[in-house]
Amino acid sequence: MSPARVTIPQSIDGSPPCNGLHMNGQDSLVQPLLTDFYQITMCYAYWKTGTHNEPAVFDVFFRKNPFHGEFTVFAGLEDCLRFVENFKFSQSDIEYVKKILPENAEPAFYEYLETLDGSHLTIEAVREGSVVFPKVPLITIYGPLAMCQLLETSFLNLVNYASLVATNAARFRQASGAKLSLLEFGLRRAQGPNGGLTASKYCYIGGFDGTSNVLAGKLFGIPDTAKTMDLFQASIEKRTWLLDQMAWGVVQSEVSDGELTAFVAYAIAFPDSFLALIDTYDVLRSGVVNFVATIMSLNEQKHEINAFGVGTHLVTCQKQPALGCVYKLVAQSAQPKIKLSQDVTKITIPGKKKCYRIFGKNGSAILDLMMLEEEPEPKPNEQILCRHPFEQNNQTAQCLLERRLRHFVRIIVVI
Amino acid sequence: MSPARVTIPQSIDGSPPCNGLHMNGQDSLVQPLLTDFYQITMCYAYWKTGTHNEPAVFDVFFRKNPFHGEFTVFAGLEDCLRFVENFKFSQSDIEYVKKILPENAEPAFYEYLETLDGSHLTIEAVREGSVVFPKVPLITIYGPLAMCQLLETSFLNLVNYASLVATNAARFRQASGAKLSLLEFGLRRAQGPNGGLTASKYCYIGGFDGTSNVLAGKLFGIPDTAKTMDLFQASIEKRTWLLDQMAWGVVQSEVSDGELTAFVAYAIAFPDSFLALIDTYDVLRSGVVNFVATIMSLNEQKHEINAFGVGTHLVTCQKQPALGCVYKLVAQSAQPKIKLSQDVTKITIPGKKKCYRIFGKNGSAILDLMMLEEEPEPKPNEQILCRHPFEQNNQTAQCLLERRLRHFVRIIVVI
Questions:
Q1: What domains, with CATH codes, occur in chain A?
Q2: Is the confidence at residue A147, as pLDDT, over 90?
Q3: Residue A108: what are its φ and ψ, rounded to 5°?
Q4: Which residues belong to any copy of the Nicotinate phosphoribosyltransferase N-terminal domain (chains A, B) (predicted)?
């Protein structure tokens, strides 16, 4: 199979693609059977009714920003593309599907499954790492109905958590400002090994500077970072020698000797990258005192505090542990398709769409404009009438578009 | 390397080991570098001070049951053992470690790293799937100090989420009773591909009956299950034919025709395993009506409702997305080690311990008794004085032990 032709237009902010990440370590578990069984029964139903090759369009989007926030950072695209590039049922996959489908399923269906790959798909997507908003398609998949259907669960799995944790990281970055170094320390509490690796990768995309996860450093080129040793005090007993090396301005009886010893030992070993865990004994009565004492000594040598590590809350996204991305049919055989629901937020926006991010005269983004493919492009310095698709009190807005109108950046992948 | 000798004593309840799971699909990402960088610097510090081969004992335990609950289901052991069996730094791992350690690190350290494997470790553990409680060691690792240290992050990663989600599943099972079939449907919202697979596996251990995740079915032998199609209504347009096949007792104008059609189509295809998603249009005004109508027809054919699927809340453990297992040094060179803290819950219980689950005369468990290795075993029909290690109002309890005293079941692994 020839490699995917990927066109990556320049990003909105001109940054290099994907923060220089290279992805050579995708999980071997990302394979066609990493899906819900119902996708396979759907595929069978399409095949049985002869609709499996009808041209279809599916949108991936979410309905609400996570964490009661106002934005989402889109991530997971690279994993989706790699999955599609390598999509092929193995012989043992087919054998397994035979076991779980009803016995009376037609044998020709399995021959059909064997032929499937990503070669008839076209995928358009917002650029990885973009700031995105509800309802706007993040990924649009064009291709044969059944093949598109088989991607649903895997795409959602790959996009949902990646975008959630990248957004969480971006919020930490927003709160801390641009100057501090933020380090991801969540591996031990992450949701499984891949949960940990995914967190390291997408926290980096979301604005973190490094990770404690060595494998993430090796696979993705994310800077690794040392964490200090809350255990050192129990295992190094020759500490008096170390204490003699430096002069301390705190009363030793107030604070833990062992903790101080550990900090000092670590500071001597890594004076340029000193990091401390201050909650081993007592944060305020011991940890902070020892930490400040150590830092003061380091400052005399022209070092300064410039990094913080974040663990469990970052990687598990405690405040909201799942993003609700969905994957919906929006057109079939050139007919727009809509999902109706009494719950207005669950109604889908039908048809093949194109999206523009509209910038105001001062250069900041005003809104994302979604149009049907056949509608004329919006033009700078012309008035357009925009309509919010669902909110009553937000139905119209007149926008004077200026010369700086730019297309919402999209990646076009043809394989 | 010879395979691990694993002795699995009979379980407390006499059930077969590990629910018949076989684990032939461990994530290729579970390797020695899936760790925090600080473990490698600790290892270097031990090696540098010549303490790396001192015999050490580490306990894995947690401090508080999750979900404000009263129990935890221990899981993840099999993954830990497989990790230890295969533990070996590759040449490219060593090269990567050279890059991230300071340049002045001694070259002999890398030769030492190359020699490391699990052959000098002994691991004792509570049996996978056991109900366990705070402070009691779940896994105890005996071996050279530095080698034990290198397992910390990986063990915590493998145990924390597995135990959390198994416990969550057990709580769903407790709420639903023993008869219903419970199915895990969380793949699309799980925290990454492995998060999804881990959830499928450990929800099964926690008491679920199956999963929608096909790969989990293939790898672990967990029963796969079909989910119905909330999308079928948009893609099948020959529905009038289907409606004619059955007589319905509901007024069609009240409910969605499309939804009913989808349910019926699915029920005809899979009359023995019909499952419905009822929130596509409106749960009470459409979904339930159509569902009941379909079920009534199926009931006439002697089918009944006996299964429920649970997704996002189950796999992400929304109520508490991380379990706080820790990995602490409790003895070094035959000396007990304690971690002191102003926060009494953070103090570790020092020394090599043995644990017994004490059963009362009526056959139900009373408490888990932790003793130092050298203390005499408790005996049935003798009084013992038990002391709660931390809680003031729970310090003593006199227990008359009956003949049915049995050892807390442990797995002994020697590799």
A1: 5-221+318-414 (3.20.140.10), 232-305 (no CATH)
A2: yes
A3: -60, -25
A4: 33-160
